[in-house]
Amino acid sequence: MAELHNLKKDKPIESKSTVKIESKTFKLAENDVRLKLTVVDTPGFGDFVDNSKCWEPIVKYIDDRFADYLAEETKIDRSPQIEDKR
């Protein structure tokens, strides 16, 4: 009962939850098959009360990857081996 009357305010927990994009690329090889796998993680996605625009950084990331590839593909003096980060 004494605890109910002697409540202490705890320090607020600081949470720096943001929607950021983390991508990691792995090169896999099995037998004669080689694969470049990119895993994209979005920590903090959907953590907010108002998630009405939480998808915008993810869509921007995807659009930027496509724009980078298109820019490389449409160069006059382009490399025959374009790195595909889409």
From TrEMBL:
SUPFAM superfamilies: P-loop containing nucleoside triphosphate hydrolases (SSF52540). InterPro entries: G_SEPTIN_dom, P-loop_NTPase. GO terms for molecular function: GTP binding. Residues 1-86 form the Septin-type G domain. PANTHER family: SEPTIN. This is Septin-type G domain-containing protein. It comes from Meloidogyne floridensis.
